[in-house]
């Protein structure tokens, strides 16, 4: 199988840090805070539990490198062609005094999620310059144990603002497990009345939440591209936009919602977790381990699960 494996080096600090026992306890407590149940970290069954397992154990360089947005764009451009990738107007460590293109623009951090700002004027540009300096001082991902972001270079990106009417474009996030696309999570109203829903590949709703977004004309092309880009990985989420009927690759995601957002309906957590388990080979999860993992069970996590089985909060 083809593996997405760009030539970046994962920094040593991204591989070390706190001992596994401490990180496992922190991950378990954060999960409990959001889901009101303890996760199984040594034998994950749910999708959200698998996300936590990946944080703690999946040390493959080829996976971590996908957190670098610019490198991810190069990967997608090579596989799909540059016309299917959001263009980059500029990248570097400090935004220039003069913007690299006409407004509106989108400024992003290369090394994290949620670090972006829309620029519509000179005043916005100056605010973005100040705000982006803070992004450059932050090592994203550490507080939720998403160490993989340490592989991404600390850089800034400027892109043209996509979409019409001044709002952010609809996001189509395709979950791919074992090389097969299974659901599309559609996000609309970002930056305002943000809402999302899960759809199947025939654009039938899977969640109680509804969406006003009609089936995108390029849905089949998005699904095909997502599966091509995910070849060789057990789970990836591949994000797209659709502009004038054409799909545009945005980025990869290794930790959807950091595994802390409950699914609607909850049964999706079970189903997607089952597919992830199958993608990893059905059994022998902890014993087999991953590249760079010794495969040992996590005694702290096992102990926590043992004395604190799923227990609702009042």
Report a brief summary of the structure.
With 314 residues, the protein is α+β, with helices and mostly antiparallel strands.
What does this structure look like?
The chain has 314 residues and is an alpha+beta fold. The protein folds into 2 domains: 36-85 and 167-287, 2-Layer Sandwich (D-amino Acid Aminotransferase, Chain A, domain 1); 87-161, 2-Layer Sandwich (Dna Ligase, domain 1). Helices cover 32% and strands 18% of the residues. It is built from 10 helices and 9 strands. It has helices at 12-15, 20-35, 47-57, 61-64, 69-80, 122-136, 219-229, 267-279, 285-288, 299-307; strands spanning 90-92, 105-109, 116-119, 156-160, 171-177, 180-188, 195-199, 235-243, 246-253. The strands form 2 sheets. Strands 7-6-5-8-9 form a 5-stranded antiparallel β-sheet. A hairpin with a 6-residue loop joins strand 6 (180-188) and strand 7. Helix 2 (20-35) runs parallel beside helix 10 and helix 3 (47-57) crosses helix 8 (267-279). The longest helix has 16 residues, at 20-35. It is globular, with a radius of gyration of 20 Å. The N and C termini lie far apart (48 Å). Residues 1-16 and 282-314 have low confidence and may be disordered.
Query: Which regions contain 5 or more consecutive residues with pLDDT less than 50?
Result: 1-16, 282-314
* Beta strand count: 9
CATH topology of the largest domain: D-amino Acid Aminotransferase, Chain A, domain 1
Q: Can you identify the CATH class of the largest domain?
A: Alpha Beta
User: Into which percentage range does the β-strand content fall?
Assistant: 15-25%
What composes the largest sheet? 5 strands, antiparallel
Count of individual domains: 2
**What is the mean pLDDT?**
85
Number of helices: 10
Order of helices and strands: HHHHHEEEHEEEEHEEHHH
Strand order of the largest sheet: 7-6-5-8-9
The share of residues in helices is 25-40%
The gyration radius over C-alpha positions equals 20 Å
CATH structural architecture of the largest domain: 2-Layer Sandwich
CATH-assigned homologous superfamily of the largest domain: ATP-grasp fold, B domain
- The backbone outline, from C-alpha atoms, is globular
Structural class: alpha+beta
What is the distance, rounded to the nearest whole angstrom, between the alpha carbons of the first and last residues? 48 Å
